[in-house]
Amino acid sequence: MDNLEERPSMGILLRVLSGLLFTGMLVCIKAVSDTVPVGQSVFFRSLFALLPIVVFLMLRREFPQGLATRRPLGHALRSGLGAAAMFASFAAVALLPVAEATLLAQLTPVFMAVGGVLLLGERFSLYRAGGVLLALAGVAVLILPGLDASAGNGQLTGYILGALSALLTAGALLTVRRISRTETAASIAFYFIVVAALAGLATLPLGWASLTRVEFALLVLSGLFGGAAHIAMTLALRYAEASRLAPFEYIALVWPVLADWVLFGSPVSSAFLLALPLMLSGVALAAMEGRRLRLRVKWLLRR
């Protein structure tokens, strides 16, 4: 990461933009989900995400020299988990409103908090325990009201896939935490996109759809939006600390709600509104420990 002067306003703006771009990607995927198989969507999304990412890396003079790696197995694990998460996420958004699929993705920090304890030997504190309980309560509130009626339309399957995507994403990010000590951000992003594209291509024998011009354009846009969202997030973290950006991550949930309402004619459900504060409170509580630990380290360093 470059040593740039901190510009929190720019970082916040880029974080909000990344949420908007990510929603645009999901909207494109949902718009073609009735006719385009998930694997085909993953392939096109990954293939065309390479374009903005490679251009960005070239501008930073990190391509191709930044792709050198000393931990190929670490990249394989991170990329495999990330690709599986993308499959699950796209399958979930085909079955659920965009807002609900996005809300379930917010479980990732909670799963990371648990994974940090189980896999990395981190301390299981009251912050983490409270975060997990609140997040689980939010999931229950979201799922239980429509449990009986959801079996026929695949809604319950969508909830399971959304939670699975968050779990796999957490595993991928925990792997990033391990390999980022020796690997560049350029190599981590690039190899993930390449592996995801190859995984999507591997589904070709299962049958792909013949695309119309509109469907092809939407799939291209999904890739461009996804790649641009990654770049915006990367730049946001260069200009502002993650703890400062955290409150603005919740603005990202505004865009999916608007997309469901305006583009798909799907108003927000009462279960979503009840689950939202519980899940976000759980995420905030789980993330609070990391901020508390950093503040304690800074205090000790000043002594």
TrEMBL record:
Gene Ontology annotations for the cellular component aspect, listed alphabetically: membrane
Subcellular location: Membrane
Stated name of the protein: EamA family transporter
Residues annotated as domain EamA: 10-143, 157-286
UniProt keywords, alphabetically: Membrane, Transmembrane, Transmembrane helix
InterPro entries: EamA_dom, EmrE-like
Membrane topology: Multi-pass membrane protein
Organism the protein comes from: Vreelandella nigrificans
PANTHER family (alphabetical): ACYL-MALONYL CONDENSING ENZYME-RELATED (PTHR22911), SOLUTE CARRIER FAMILY 35 MEMBER G1 (PTHR22911:SF6)
Transmembrane domains' residue ranges: 12-32, 38-59, 80-97, 103-121, 126-144, 156-176, 188-210, 216-236, 248-264, 270-288
